[in-house]
């Protein structure tokens, strides 16, 4: 058994937190309205907090219509304060019932990225951090996965869907709100821009990834909306195509996006076969995480494996061939489930 199911109270706590976050209308925290007097006339501003930084935006001059807006804003502030207080208790309940929490450094990174609108624009947490959040989503504790990676992988498409809100930010500057000591990790080719950023004071690295289309290439791809480059990764589009909202039990709760558990598992199978020999240990970790998620899905949501298998077929023969090769390296029962999902 690769997992332990948490008590029903954990499922309720997670669902409550996710619902509250999903319905929350006010981004940021610590919002307030105030005036500034310029040459004898008052002007209204909205102040809000992102990470450790306070920011403000201009609302307008002191007129009847702006004062009505301020009244509505303050009413929303009162409601948001009550919601945040309630979510803080929900977060404590989630952690008390066994859901995995983030370290303070990780939580600050997640907070500034969430409040920047990055996840609303389609960015998805990938890698081992996604595995952690999938455990929370499925309300299980993973066995034999005590070690936590120091990398936070963020996958973002090169173009943002029309239906998604626009994002225009400087990725490095945004991270600097979580830790002032942010610096790019030099690429192997010094002529190429970095796709990884280290937080000097937190022993944490944040990496940007994007789907690779067309011919093989390791050349970083500029993400214009983030003013940063991302590492192109083959088949990443399969992972993030069916992403889902997830709740993070930190602070007053954070709303992010993660891959669907079934696609995460099948993608990990493929990734395990694409690792160079020098990264064989990471390949074994990929297989272990895939098997752990598949075991939960086998017991709780076997239909999800079939859906992910059908989507895998649409990725092409090479993707399926590598996935099927990996199924021979995990438990026979789990491998058989994947193979059946592909041939249906």
Model description:
This protein is α+β, with helices and mostly antiparallel strands and 344 residues long. The chain is built from eleven helices and 14 strands. It has helices at residues 8-23, 64-96, 104-115, 127-138, 171-176, 236-240, 261-274, 280-300, 302-313, 317-327, 332-343, and strands at residues 3-5, 29-38, 41-50, 53-61, 124-126, 140-142, 151-155, 182-184, 196-199, 204-212, 221-223, 228-234, 244-248, 254-258. Strands 5, 7, 8, 9, 10, 11 and 12 form a seven-stranded mixed sheet that branches. It has a three-stranded antiparallel sheet with strand order 2-3-4. The radius of gyration is 22 Å and the shape is globular. The two termini are 27 Å apart. Residues 161-165 have low confidence and may be disordered.
């Amino acid at each position: 058994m690769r997992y332990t199911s948490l008590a029903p109270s954990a499922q309720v706590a997670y669902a409550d937190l996710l619902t509250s976050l999903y319905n929350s209308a006010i981004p940021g925290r610590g919002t307030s309205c105030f005036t500034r007097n310029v040459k004898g006339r008052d002007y209204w501003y909205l102040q809000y907090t992102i990470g450790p930084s306070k920011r403000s935006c201009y609302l307008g001059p002191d007129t009847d219509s702006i004062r009505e807006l301020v009244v509505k804003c303050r009413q929303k502030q009162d409601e948001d304060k009550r919601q945040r207080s309630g979510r803080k208790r929900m977060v404590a309940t989630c952690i008390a019932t066994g859901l995995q929490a983030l370290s303070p450094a990780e939580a600050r990174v997640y907070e500034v990225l969430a409040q920047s609108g990055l996840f609303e624009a389609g960015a998805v947490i990938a890698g081992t951090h996604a595995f952690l959040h999938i455990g929370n989503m499925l309300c299980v504790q993973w066995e034999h996965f005590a070690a936590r990676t120091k990398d936070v992988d963020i996958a973002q498409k090169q173009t943002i869907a029309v239906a998604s809100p626009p994002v225009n930010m400087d990725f490095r500057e945004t991270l600097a709100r979580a830790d002032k000591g942010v610096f790019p990790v030099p690429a192997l080719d010094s002529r190429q821009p970095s796709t990884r950023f280290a937080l000097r004071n937190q022993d944490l690295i944040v990496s940007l990834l994007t789907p690779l289309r067309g011919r093989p290439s390791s050349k970083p791809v500029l993400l214009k909306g983030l003013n940063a480059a991302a590492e192109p990764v083959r088949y990443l589009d399969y992972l993030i195509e069916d992403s889902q909202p997830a709740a993070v039990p930190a602070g007053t709760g954070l709303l992010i996006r993660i891959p669907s558990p079934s696609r995460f598992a099948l993608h990990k199978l493929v990734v395990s076969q694409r690792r160079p020999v020098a990264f064989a240990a990471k390949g074994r970790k990929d297989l272990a995480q895939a098997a752990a998620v598949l075991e939960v899905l086998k017991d709780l949501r076997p239909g999800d494996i079939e859906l992910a298998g059908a989507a895998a077929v649409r990725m092409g023969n090479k993707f399926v061939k590598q996935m099927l090769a990996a199924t021979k390296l995990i438990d026979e029962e789990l491998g058989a489930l994947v193979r059946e999902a592909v041939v249906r």
